Amino acid sequence: MEHARERITDPRPGPPDPPPPASAGGARGLELLVHGVGGTTPEKMLAEPRTIRVTGDDTAAVYRRAEDVPESPGPAGPALDERPGEGPVREAYVWCNLTSGNGTRALWLLLLPFMVVNLAHWMRPSVERPGPSVRLYGLLVRLAALTLTVLLVAAASEVALDLVAWQCAGAPACAGRHTWLTFLSPSLSGGWWTPPGRRLALAALAPTLLTALLWYLSHRTWSAYESHRPLTTTAEPAADEGALARPGFWYGRRLGARLRAAHTSAGLLTVAAAVTLPAVRFDHRPGGPALLDLLGVLLGTGILTWACAVVAVVCRRGRSERELDQALDRHLLRALPLGALALLLLAVTYACSARPGWQSAGRLPGDPAFGAIMLAQGILVVALAVVARRLHRRLPDPRAAMRGLGGPAVALLACALGGVASGGVAQRVADWLDGTRASITGPPVTLTWQASAIPPVLAVLLVLIAFLARRTARLARAERRRVRAEHPGEPEDPHRTRRIAHVRAMATLTDRAPLILAVGSVATLIAGAGALTGALATGLAPAHAARDAWAPVHVAAEICQTLGSWLVGVGFLLFVTWGRRAYKDASARRTIGILWDVGTFWPRAAHPFAPPCYAERAVPDLTWRTATWTERTGGRLVLSGHSQGSVLVAAAAWQLPPAVRQRVALLTYGSPLERLYGRWFPAHFGPAALAALHRDICCWRNLHRRTDPIGGPIRLPAGHGTEVDHEPLPDPRAYGRTPEHPLPAPILGHSDYQEDPVFVRERDRLLARLHPDLPAPRPEPDRK
């Protein structure tokens, strides 16, 4: 195995493909295997300990068995020919390092809200023709994503400027317990940094560095993962093929750069506003310094004007997919963040000005800011739901999740995650600084109300989970009768029957995800609206606001506040602990990688700070390999994808030129193409798009099992043939002990599709359908 590992990382590329054979009868067959979530190794995919990298790098590459690679390039030889009885030459495309490589990628967990709101962009309902409503949908998602950036930087500013620099450093009891704050405390130091404005200016360095880090990660990951240009083709996609067939779908350079500049500017402006507002409030008091008051008003006006420019940039332009989006707005990309940085420097200079008599007391005005962000997010989500519902009514899709409202629900989930993360960080830092001594005021009341809304939402979800558990148990009992009926004449094994029925019933829970998200979204929206109303109406924490109310209400408020704060803190600590564990634990890194395999398939069209899109590297890789191999060899190729790999091969097939599509077959197994992607992303994997792919590809076969919680049938619309979906594969392959299976056959579920004899048979049938017809011999001319 050590030798095999060395061969995997061998940097030497394999030899190029040989030239086309002399006759059509020598056309070769190739099966290009693409693995699914979690990743694997080329040895496991090819069932061979000796593999050689044919093309690619350490991040993603194509491998072959060593015996299938000729010693030197040349004409088609037996090493590359399809050999009788052995099937086609097999290649393995390994892309797991795109998502679950080194431990630093565990930090992407902190970007989870950004990834979720980016998913909402791609979940719009399907329409016949894009129009103003589609553009409005994308605009609302981009604005919601912008509020998440502002929320993250505002939370960092709340921790650094308010809790640390303003409250703790200004309270002698709190500053005395933390020696690293001594030089900021007026009563303990009396140095140059002790005035409140200068403490705020120094603390502004933390959220500024966070914004710079987000910009750096976004720029660096785009260069590493998403800068690979797709295969260019001059053919225009058909009207019913969808956006994935467009040449610029997997290359959003221009929009990514614009959004990166806009979000970076928004973060810097948020820090500038957090530094400026306390000083302006002090200078604007009666009898305050007139010059500083005027400068503060001018600075605030400049920040507001530049913020409007940032919003205008976000609203101005969406994705351009009909051609490669290569042009960059270089002047805008420089001017926008540089202007925001200049305003931040002016704000820091303004805050550092001498202000005799200015002391820090209470908390900074954070409640209006967080309340405004919550209100803006709620309005955007409701407007997004109205637009999505309108789009769904134009072209109803009965299989679409939540009747077209999946995108707004996911956007609301992203906002809720951002709010919980913000409140958790603020609450944990406040407890760490002060504990139970009450020497500081603590985080804003709005964040406390947000935390208090968590227990009611969890209670609703627990009731729903109990309902689904009962329903699943009843389904399992019904499945027992079906299992017994499928194996007549065999001795019954009650334990075996119960286990098979239980696995089948549990596999159906995937189809209940829309119900869970719908109930959770409604509960979150109601609880969030109540929390915002309570915070703005009372200005007090829930327990204090309800102290004069009816006794049960007061007790419930105290329980929700205490339990909510505890849940937020524990959740945040678990979040950080899981991220740290991934540095040393390869299994934890793989688990995190599975999350990104599903969540980062889509390009960063709404939020530039989301984790990078691995498909912008994987899809061009598969497209280039498929197109160049078929062109150079004239051979037959089967794109064979498991689980998430089936989504990648379908996306690659859409990108192929029409002539190449007719020479390629698809073999998908354990595929979530319709069951997950078709329901949650109907605009791109809906019935019309999948039917168009089936029409344009030469042939397609899909394998699935009833015990698979992820994969399922393709369910093409009526009139498009039924030859795509194979009947459900038996799982387990044998109910009891048989001569062919003397030991109990395992329940495979989502794994090991290639071990089923049906897999090889269906792959060979696809190759046979791809076999070119031999031209008839020409009759010799009459020489008489």
TrEMBL record:
Compositionally biased tracts (Pro residues): 12-22
Disordered: annotated span: 1-29, 66-85, 713-734
Comp. bias (Basic and acidic residues): 1-10
Entry keyword annotation includes Hydrolase: no
Record field: transmembrane: 136-156, 200-217, 261-282, 294-315, 335-357, 369-388, 409-427, 447-469, 515-543, 563-580
Keywords: Membrane, Transmembrane, Transmembrane helix
Domain of life: Bacteria
Name used for this protein in its record: Lipase family protein
Lineage: Bacteria, Bacillati, Actinomycetota, Actinomycetes, Kitasatosporales
